[in-house]
Amino acid sequence: MSSKQEKGWKELSIAAVSPKSSTGFLTGDWKTYMPVHDLEKCVSCLTCVMLCPEGAVRWRPDLGKIEFDFTFCKGCGICANECPTKSLTMKMPADQKEE
Amino acid sequence: MTTTTQDWKFTAKDVALKPDLFLSGHRACAGCGPATVLRMIMKATRGPTIVTQATGCMEIVGSIYPYTSWGLPWLHTAFENAAANASGIEAAIKAMRKKGKIKQEHIDVIAIAGDGGTYDIGLQALSGAIERGHDFLFVLYDNEGYMNTGIQRSGGTPTGASTTTTPAGTAIPGKLEKKKPITEIIMAHELEYVATATPYYWKDMLTKVRKGLEVEGPAFLHIFAPCPRGWRTDPSKTMAYSKLSVETCVFPIWEATNGKRALSTPSKMYSLAPEKKKPVTDYLKDQGRFRHLFKPENKHIIDQIQQVTDERWQKLLKQCEQA
Amino acid sequence: MAQQQGKPEKFLAFNGDEAVAFAAKQSDVDVVAAYPITPQTIIVEKFSEYVANGEVQTEFVCTESEHSAISASLSASTTGARTFTASASAGLALMHEILFVTSGSRAPVVMAVANRALSSPINIHGDHSDSMAERDSGWLHIYVENAQEAYDSIIQAFKIAEDPDVSLPIIVGLDGFTISHTLENVNILPDEVVKQFVGERVLPMVMNHEGKTVPFKLDPDNPMTMGPNVSSTYYFEFKRQQEEAMKNALKKIQEVNANYAKLSGRSYGDGLVDTYKLDDAEIAVVVVGSTAGTLKVLIDELRNEGIKAGLLRLRTFRPFPAEQLQNALKHLKALAVMDKSMSFGGLGGPVFAEVRNALFDLKQHPLIINYIFGLGGRDSNPLGLRKVFENLQQVAKSGQIEDIVHYLGLKE
Questions:
Q1: What digits encode the pLDDT tens for the residues C388-407?
Q2: Average pLDDT over residues A57-74
Q3: pLDDT over 50 at C282, yes or no
Q4: Contact present, C30 and B97 (Cβ < 8 Å)
Q5: Average pLDDT over chain B, rounded to whole?
Q6: Which structural domain, as residue segments, surrounds residue C128?
């Protein structure tokens, strides 16, 4: 994040007005487990979209399904815990490869 | 331009498509209840909105310079003055509108504070701002402790909870005092709209945010927001605790318009079918902060928690009947 | 006194507080957020009358504490409103935390402080303990000599604080009771002249998180995040910016003083320091506030007696006009700096410490002593003040300082 390009005091906007959106700060590498989605079980109720603290589950009406943004997902598992049809399971990325 | 709750039904698909105003990339812990609260309540905003926030976890995680998670104008100044800041913003909008310096027909003002910034250090400023009748919505996200500074007790911490300033010791088993009935204190100010909510019932919560914004004058929304770090609970269970708090009547959800109280649907069920109400132990048993209560010598505290929960629930039922 | 071309001068009988309220009204403030405290109360009372009688379009927020008064002032200012507040003593002390937040947030709030002693013991009378305790809070500080200057300085304060290169809050200090409650004939400017002089608020430009360069305010059309959490990576840089704004204010105060003189015929030295019979003086006094008036009377007497006495009134305390002080005081043999507050355990009062610091760089500087006086409203009359000059004569003659710090008018 920090680099030689860090701005000096003369270049920064006054009063520490934030110059960047946190959508440029990726929190996806915090996770240990990640949700794995079973499309066949999903009924698109969007409970996971509503309850995700990260805004990392999105509804794609164009595709007619939900989509995970793993660049932000912290792997908390709320989505899997709350999914009424058990379409989501939390797995270690390695487990997933084995399957 | 002011829309009413009837105009928008808050269906999951509507809400999902509304762009986030509390943005991804914030630094809240995994499974943070307040993070879901902030992300979701911002979806209930109805137009130009300014947010001011008290110091606390959610203030920090959303504004770590040079990044911000706020997609709308946002101001933080200190811990105890969120309501005073809202007063100033509202007064500025009013004055500048009178003088033609603001083109927007209306700008909503939302103040957000945690339980520390509401129950404790922020109570005076909040009481003053409500008494003066400023047009703003105050949102209390209650995670029952000073989590930002490392899980200390607040006026909102419940009986029995072990915090770093009420540790479960050999002589004193966690916090001995009751949770301050903050919403009753606010109700005594006779404001138009007061409600409680919790994020598992997101639709109920969003509707209440919108109602609070529609009120001309102060409105207060108390949102129960589980904190896995401070409660020592599994991050995946955050919303399960949000739900359990209602199922056990530890945190009933209701709303009061002009002093008339009514239980909200999820809580109403337990008034109609009291046998469905779960015991508080269901809520307490897997929370690390209450673990010590399950030792035989502390059983009386669990009994006390059940008793206070029942008393407060019965009192609330009467208050709702009177309406 | 020169006035607006063709317009007759107008005088109104005002005490200092009333003069302040009237100036704030004429400056077309958008928001006033305040809480009553003696000896400032008349300001909020008078302003409330303007509101009650529909003479202003200002939103008056009568808060439940000074802490909320300054918090609401700060947020109103960051929303783009011209904002005014007033306080004193314990009230200012209660604001302490938010004073730093206000300057750090670069909110140009104008605050009148009717200077009063701090508890304990409780005392409602005038001294400078309250605002001197806030000297490092990042606010500009101007101290006035009388009600006329209080009126003029409030008008100037908006112009100075709101300048985009400054964008800092400002305290205008007027001595409690001596100025705040003493009736004077105040020469006022017409409403439209003041309104034009102060002008519309001009906002500094900043870059928001959308990458847009936009005016610095809470604006739904151009969202920005104000008051974020800044770690050691950047905090220092924003403090350095505040110091630069202070430097810019040094120029701006002089410029506004000069422009206001063109309009009103009144100026206060160069806006930073105001001198009286100082050029050819051998001994002199540096003072802040209303005591300057008394000292002028005394200096006239001393001059008649053949004593070359002079005066420098420090009008602007923050930013501290070190260079101006060096130039004005370098020729003196002996100098007394008078403090109406104490810096307990320090070497002399705060004004003394700063003035002596400023003169240290001179190749040859006067011998400098300190007088603490007037605490809790203790009267300072020409007879008592004469002792200061007697001591200065002694110091000048002997070239020796026996005691650096003196207490004037103290019961021994």
A1: 999 999 999 999 999 999 99
A2: 97
A3: yes
A4: no
A5: 96
A6: 10-203+243-264
Average pLDDT, chain C: 97
- By residue range, what is the domain housing residue A38? 27-94
- Please give the span between the terminal C-alpha atoms of chain B, in angstroms, as a whole number: 32
Task: Confirm whether A72 is domain-assigned.
Answer: yes
C80 contacts in chain B (CB < 8 Å): 92, 96, 101-102
Number of domains in chain A: 1
Same domain, C40 and C63: yes
- b/e B73-101 (16+ beta carbons within 10 angstroms → b): bbbbbbbbbbbbbbbbbbbbbbbbbeeeb
Distance, CA of C122 to CA of C380 (rounded, Å) = 20
The answer to whether C76 contacts chain B (CB < 8 Å) is yes
Is the same domain home to C126 and C184?
Answer: yes
- Comparing CA positions, the residue from B60, B61, B113, B62 lying closest to residue B85 is B113
Burial class for B8, CB neighbours closer than 10 Å (0-12, 13-18, 19+)? middle
Task: Give a yes or no: residue A74 inside a domain.
Answer: yes
**Domain B5-322, CATH class in plain words:** alpha beta
Distance from CA of C230 to the nearest CA of B (A): 5
Q: Does A90 touch chain B (CB under 8 A)?
A: yes
Which residues 9-48 of C are in CB contact (within 8 Å) with B?
A: 30-31, 33
Residues C113 and C258 both lie in one domain = yes
Domain-wise residue ranges, chain B: 5-322
ipTM score assigned to the predicted complex: 0.97
The pLDDT, as a whole number, for residue B6 is 56
Q: What is the pLDDT of residue A1?
A: 46
| Angstrom distance (rounded) from CA C299 to CA B47 | 65
- Type of residue found at B279: P
The residues facing C226 across adjacent strands are B75
Contact call for B239 and A54, based on CB within 8 A: no
Average pLDDT over residues C328-339: 98
Contacts of B236 (CB under 8 A, 6+ apart): A76, A77, A78, A80, A81, A90, B31
CB–CB of C133/C141 below 8 Å?
Answer: no
Return the CATH number at A86.
3.30.70.20
* Segment C104-115 mean pLDDT: 98
Query: Does residue C256 sit in the same domain as residue C284?
Result: no
Share of chain B above pLDDT 70, in %: 97
Same domain, yes or no, for C251 and C285? no
For residues B250 and B284, the answer to whether their CB atoms sit within 8 Å is: no
Same domain, C178 and C310: no
Predicted local confidence at residue A93, as pLDDT: 84
Say whether pLDDT at C7 is over 90. no
What's the confidence (pLDDT) of residue B321?
Answer: 86
Give residue A99's pLDDT: 45
Q: Is C230 a member of any domain?
A: no
C169 and C28 housed in the same domain: yes
- Look up residue C47 and give its two tokens: 């302003």
Kindly state whether residue A57 falls inside one of the protein's structural domains: yes
**Over residues B54-72, mean pLDDT:** 98
The whole-number pLDDT of residue C5 equals 54
What pLDDT does C1 receive? 42
CATH of the domain at C124: 3.40.50.970
Tell me, yes or no, whether A21 lies in a domain.
no
* B30–A74 CB contact, under 8 Å: yes
The mean pLDDT of C194-216, rounded to a whole number, is 98
Are C209 and B92 a contacting pair at CB < 8 A? no
Which of A9, A20, A21, A25 best tests the C interface by mutation, with the highest count of C CBs <10 A? Answer: A9
Residue contact B15–A50, C-beta within 8 A: yes
Q: What phi-psi label fits residue A52: left (phi over 0), alpha (psi between -120 and 50 degrees) or beta?
A: beta
Give residue B4's pLDDT band: very low, low, confident or very high (50, 70, 90). Answer: low
- DSSP assignments along B75-111, one per residue: EE--SS-HHHHHHHHHHHHHHHHHTT----S--EEEE
Name the amino acid, one letter, at C286: V
Whether C129 and C178 map to the same domain: the answer is yes
